[in-house]
User: What shape does this take?
Amino acid sequence: MTATHTGHPHTAQREWAQGLTVFAAVMLMIAGLLAVCRGVMAIAEDDVFVTTSNYAFEFDLTGWGWVHLILGALAVIVSFGLFQAVLWARVAGVAIAGLVIISNFLSLPYYPVWSVVMIALSGFIIWALCVARQDESSDPFDARRRADREHRPHATSEPERR
Assistant: This one.
C-alpha cells in the first residue's frame, strides 16, 4: 500500500519567493528612509548638494527635496504592505521604485554618487518584486505550516505503540 502525499512540492520555491518579498520590503524601507533624509537635506538647502549650471532638467533644490521626501514617505508606507505580502503593495512597490529611479536620474547632477546608488538599489527592489509570483508568496507563514504538516507523522500512517 502506498501513501500519497498532498503537500506542495515547491516548498523551496515558496521560501525563495517569500525571501525575495521580505528582501524587497526591507530594501524599500531603507531606500524610503534614505530618500526622506535626502529630501529634508535638500529642503534645508544643505551644502552637500552640488550646484550645476545649464542642466536640461534644472529644478529648484527645494523642489527636488519635496519630490524625494514624498517618494520616500510613500516607499516606507508601501514597505509595510510588503511585509503583509499583499498584491497592492507589490504593484505599488514596483511603481514607487520606478519613480525613485526616474527622480534620481533627473537629480543626478545635484548628488551624483548617491543618485547612482539609489538607482541600483531601486533596480534590485523592482527585480525582487517581479521575480516572485503572487501565488508563491501570498502567505509568508503558509510554507512553514505546510512543512510542519509534511514532517509531522500522520495518525493513520503508523499504529500507536504502547
